[in-house]
Amino acid sequence: MLKPLAALFFYARFFRAFSVLGFRARVPDPGQPRLDFRGQRWVVTGATGGIGRAIALGAARAGAAVVAIARDPSRLATLAAEPVASPGRVETLQVDLASIARVRAAAGAIVDGGRVDVVVANVGVMRHDYSRTAEGLETSLATNLVNHYALVESLRTAKAIDGRSLVISMSSGGMYGARLDLAALEAADAAGHDGFMAYAQHKRAQVELTRYWNGLGPAAPVAHVMHPGWVDTDGVRTALPGFRRALARYLRSADQGADTALWLAATRPPVAAEGGIWLDRQLDPEHAFGYTRGGASAAELVAWLERRVVGAIGRPMA
Ligand SMILES: NC(=O)c1ccc[n+]([C@@H]2O[C@H](COP(=O)([O-])OP(=O)(O)OC[C@H]3O[C@@H](n4cnc5c(N)ncnc54)[C@H](OP(=O)(O)O)[C@@H]3O)[C@@H](O)[C@H]2O)c1
User: Fold this and answer.
1) 3-state secondary structure at position 152
2) Residue 3 has pLDDT above 90, yes or no
């Protein structure tokens, strides 16, 4: 009984801000500023569906050359066939973000293509089932967190992203319910796995990862973490069907969910000393409840990720 009640309280607390009502209130003129990404090279993960697709097409239509990452070749082909005026273009890369080896290989191909201006770490899955990848990681942990870390670190150490580049991590308001607990990032077995809580932990971890990248100094990319609001996508349809049914009238479109990412890339706001998470072009606090404070630090998280990478592929990231 406690869990449904807590969920109800959580959704009621954020209903106005995260629904389409919040978007309309905070972004009265989504058409402004006019986007111009000519001459830029972007990498977008999860680019064939939902929010990632809207970001990839939004960037390409504003002139960027976009490397679009996802798994399904037919959906990648459909994306590549979308009309995009030159100099914008979409180049597809079929990669399973659950595999460190594939992500490292993909990063190599991206590096060969030259510098990257913007990386959007967008893929995020909530998996209620429990499975492990061939490399031994719980699948949602690998997909949501380990491999976005692997992708960015591979590009960073190869100098394909630098101090002029931007990394945008797509977190979620779900992170407001989690105090970062390294032991809760990955359950040891199916009995200990709660897809909802694991997702919230991964999304909280993205906030700390952002802090880590921003602490690396001027040669490292600028990093921002954002929340898209509640968006009507395949991901929500699959992972949260009851939530989608209940809130159908109040969900955002994919373009509305993508708005803040495109705005961050267009306006390049400075990183705030106190951190924060972007929603609807505004920086919100990282915590909404006192109990989520005091979790693992960015340095502890990165040390943990490195240990998981070594455990999975037998060598460190760098
Ligand atoms: N929708 C919301 O209301 C909401 C709210 C808060 C936060 N978010 C966050 O926003 C992000 C995007 O969410 P969404 O709802 O747009 O997602 P979605 O509808 O589930 O889109 C999924 C995209 O990711 C790709 N993908 C999934 N697994 C992959 C993998 N292992 N490797 C490579 N690509 C993979 C899919 O293509 P393939 O299946 O072909 O690989 C597709 O392009 C996520 O991080 C999510 O946590 C969403």
Assistant:
1) helix
2) no
Tens digits of residue pLDDT in 140-188: 999 999 999 999 999 999 999 999 999 999 999 999 999 999 999 999 9
How far apart are the C-alpha atoms of 82 and 56, rounded to whole Å? 11
- At a CB cut-off of 8 Å and minimum separation 6, what does 169 contact? 121, 148, 206, 209, 210, 223, 224, 225, 226
Contact 50, 68 (CB under 8 A): no
- Work out which ligand 1 atom sits closest to the CA atom of 254: 16
Q: Which CATH superfamily is domain 12-313 in?
A: NAD(P)-binding Rossmann-like Domain (3.40.50.720)
Percent of the chain exceeding pLDDT 90 equals 95
Q: Report which ligand 1 atom has the smallest distance to the Cα of 143.
A: 31
pLDDT tens figures, 51-76: 999 999 999 999 999 999 999 999 99
232 lines ligand 1 (CB under 6 A): no
| Residue among 71, 168, 245 to mutate when testing ligand 1 (max atoms within 8 A of CB) | 71
Judge if the beta carbon of residue 51 lies within 6 A of ligand 1. Answer: yes
Return the domain boundaries, the chain. Answer: 12-313
Residues listed for the chain = 318
Summarised one tens digit per residue, pLDDT across range 228-252 is: 999 999 999 999 999 999 999 999 9
